[in-house]
Write a structure and sequence with these properties.
CATH superfamily of the domain at 11-102 and 164-225 in chain B: P-loop containing nucleotide triphosphate hydrolases
Helix content of chain B: 25-40%
Number of helices of chain B: 7
Shape of chain A: elongated
Oligomer: heterodimer
CATH class of the domain at 11-102 and 164-225 in chain B: Alpha Beta
Structural class of chain A: alpha+beta
Distance between the termini of chain B: 33 Å
Radius of gyration of chain A: 30 Å
Structural class of chain B: alpha/beta
Number of domains of chain A: 2
Largest sheet of chain B: 5 strands, parallel
Number of helices of chain A: 12
Helix content of chain A: 40-55%
Largest interface: A-B, 27 and 36 residues
Strand order of the largest sheet of chain B: 6-7-8-3-9
Order of helices and strands of chain B: EEEHEEHEHHHEHEEH
Number of strands of chain A: 15
Strand content of chain A: 15-25%
Strand content of chain B: 15-25%
Distance between the termini of chain A: 26 Å
Order of helices and strands of chain A: HHEHEHEEHEEEEHEEEEHEEHEHHHH
Largest sheet of chain A: 11 strands, mixed
Chain lengths: 401, 237
């Protein structure tokens, strides 16, 4: 009955209540949105690479190496000679290696020169291997395998021919027009940056850059980085130290897990600031709700006196105000969550294409429920101001003639 | 339902040394001794400022005068805690005001249901509600109508229904007719008495309109009862 009374009372004051709901929903939208992007960004972050023991590149910062080798962001500082790669890959502790050669692009998507080992050994998520949705891995020098996103966005099919551009960016002045590649395979979507690249062989990479290529097999001169899988994880640190301190070409070996968490630590500051701002926005809207209730109580003095007369105790009036606040909160949350779902549905492809952030899973996660619990508690605390006001008022005042 | 059963004494109201002053204010009510026999239909005359509203608040248990002996329907009001007092009021005392007797945005039925809700007894409420409406000569179609949509006369009659829905033993009525036109006033008083007349039921009808006094078996005047009353009194009652 109290809930019904609270509901009818809110309906009666539709104008100001709608505004309060709107303000609550906007603030919750911001908070849930930030939380959503935060948790998914972290997820998709951590699932980009798995099963790789070491990533090796020219000496640079570990995060930079991670960014360009795994996330295909930023630029490599220097290349590694093929000989150096061969030497490390031949170490007895190494089970497999994936060479990576970067530098070209196709319509804004990066081109990765690599070997068959990439398809065989690269893992993402919780150790999931790459799978081809169609076709086969590259075989010939001018074969290309497309990431799922690339194929979908550019509408490529098996057998289509693709012209690569030198450098990055979707418009390039230097196209390798004379050496078109043929699509031989398309990867299954992975929800990682792997979807946003084109994969060709190292030979293909050499071929497009060699003006005098005659179709013969080429030996790569340099590569950008490589990933290593070891026979035994115990050897990881030993090999890492060995690579990092080796004489000759300066190299850097990193543990992907460690570098990922370092990177995440850096982003954490941003993440926390966003969360703080969102929390303050929510607090502001709850205070707005509190003001709305306080003014409503002034307008409803006679209503409250009447409720007292027919036997409502101060506690019940206290609860009535709390229920009203909670109803506004719940309605606001419903609006916020539905708008957010629609918004994410629209924004998801954009985020994936431009930032490599994949939003998956439902909005109603355990975390967002937890967050809602905290907000409900905060609402209760803020509403204490008007609710206690009513409580005390009702003890002092009697019937009004 | 959990409130203590009230032992109904011979007197509906018995009070001694009832003094009351609001916070930091002068004494607005001072009645050395007074009693109302059970079953009385009392017309209490009192202009504004005579302390009548304060007296009604004390009788209804909305305000408490701790030093006084005040028994309503045999129950000492100062002996009850505030929650028990609220429950006692809900179960045994009906109140009708000059205006604003109903929550405007609730339907008539919901207003009645709300009143019953605070006693904890909502059993066959709809039957009781439609019976009361019939007795008060109101159409059944009013049940679903919003209180704000009723005419003033209808509202006051529904107010009686609301006050009677819990079958109280005492009815406190404060200037219920001042919003009505003269013909409607007598009809209202008649209706009230018809529906509440019983040897157990005590009615206290407060008004400054002495033309209604003829309907009642007993009369009293606040100005004689209340020793704190002065003609040029600077307080509000």
């Amino acid at each position: 009955m109290l809930v019904k009374l609270a509901w009818q009372s809110l309906m009666h004051r539709r104008g100001s209540v709608l505004l309060a709901i709107l303000s609550v929903s906007v603030s919750l939208f911001v908070l849930f949105g930030v939380e959503q992007i935060r948790s998914h960004a972290k997820d998709s972050f951590n699932r980009t690479v798995s099963g790789v023991d070491l990533i090796v590149g020219a000496r640079t910062g570990p995060i930079n190496l991670l960014l360009y080798s795994v996330f295909r962001m930023g630029s490599p500082s220097a290349n590694i000679s093929w000989q150096t790669y061969q030497r490390v890959a031949d170490e007895p502790a190494v089970a497999w290696s994936i060479p990576i050669s970067l530098g070209d692009s196709h319509k804004g998507y990066r081109v990765v020169g690599t070997s068959q080992d990439f398809f065989e050994h690269f893992r993402f998520g919780k150790g999931r291997p790459l799978e081809l949705a169609q076709g086969t891995a590259f075989d010939d020098t001018l074969d290309v395998v497309l990431g799922a996103e690339v194929a979908r966005k550019l509408g490529y099919d098996l057998g289509d021919s693709v012209v690569l551009a030198h450098g990055l960016g979707s418009t390039s002045f230097h196209n390798h027009d004379d050496r078109p590649f043929k699509v031989t395979g398309i990867l299954q979507p992975t929800g990682t940056p792997t979807d946003q690249a084109l994969y060709i062989s190292l030979q293909g990479m050499e071929a497009v850059h060699d003006r005098h290529w005659d179709g013969s097999a080429l030996e790569p001169q340099t590569i950008t980085a490589f990933m290593l899988g070891l026979n035994s994880p115990v050897k990881t640190f030993q090999l890492q130290r060995q690579i990092n301190t080796a004489r000759g070409e300066p190299l850097l070996a990193i543990l992907p897990g460690v570098a990922l968490s370092q990177l995440w630590q850096m982003l954490r500051v941003v993440e926390n600031i966003l969360l703080l701002v969102a929390a303050l926005v929510v607090l502001a809207s709850l205070l707005g709700l509190c003001i709305m209730l306080l003014t409503s109580i002034r307008e409803r003095r006679r209503e409250i006196a009447l409720l007292r007369t027919i036997g409502a105790g101060p506690l019940q009036l206290f609860l009535l105000i709390q229920i009203e606040a909670l109803l506004v909160l719940v309605l606001g949350a419903c609006v916020a969550l539905s708008v957010l779902s629609i918004g994410l549905w629209i924004a998801e492809p954009l985020l994936a294409a431009h930032y490599g952030v994949y939003l998956e899973g439902s909005i109603v996660s355990e975390q967002s429920m937890q967050l809602f619990g905290i907000i409900a508690a905060a609402t209760f605390v803020v509403t204490l101001i008007p609710a206690i006001g009513v409580y005390r008022e009702s003890l002092k005042r009697g019937l009004e003639a | 339902m959990n409130a203590p059963a009230v032992e109904l004494g011979e007197e509906a109201v018995a009070l001694e040394r009832l003094r009351y002053s609001y916070e930091r204010g002068a004494c607005v009510l001072d009645i050395p001794q007074w009693s109302i026999p059970k079953g009385s239909h009392l017309f209490l005359r009192g202009p504004s400022g005579s302390g009548k509203t304060t007296l009604l608040n004390l009788l209804a248990g909305m305000l408490v005068a701790p030093e006084a002996r005040l028994e309503v329907l045999g129950q000492s009001m100062s002996a009850l805690g505030s929650r028990r007092r609220d429950r006692f009021r809900a179960q045994h005392i009906g109140v009708v005001f000059q205006q604003f007797n109903l929550i405007p945005y609730l339907s008539v039925l919901d207003n009645l249901r709300l009143a019953a809700h605070f006693t904890g007894n909502t059993r066959d409420l709809e039957r009781r509600a439609s019976e009361l409406l019939a007795e008060l000569r109101l159409g059944q179609d009013l049940l679903q109508r919003k209180a704000a949509k009723l005419s003033v006369g209808q509202q006051q009659r529904v107010a009686i229904a609301r006050a009677l829905i819990n079958r109280p033993n005492m009815l406190l009525v404060d200037e219920p007719t001042s919003a009505l036109d003269p013909e409607a006033r007598d009809a209202f008083a008649e209706l009230l008495l018809q529906n509440f007349a019983s040897s157990d039921n005590t009615l206290i009808f407060v008004s400054h309109d002495t033309t209604l006094a003829a309907h009642f078996s007993q009369r009293a005047d606040m100005r004689e009862l209340n020793r704190a009353w002065r003609e040029e009194g600077s307080y509000a009652g």
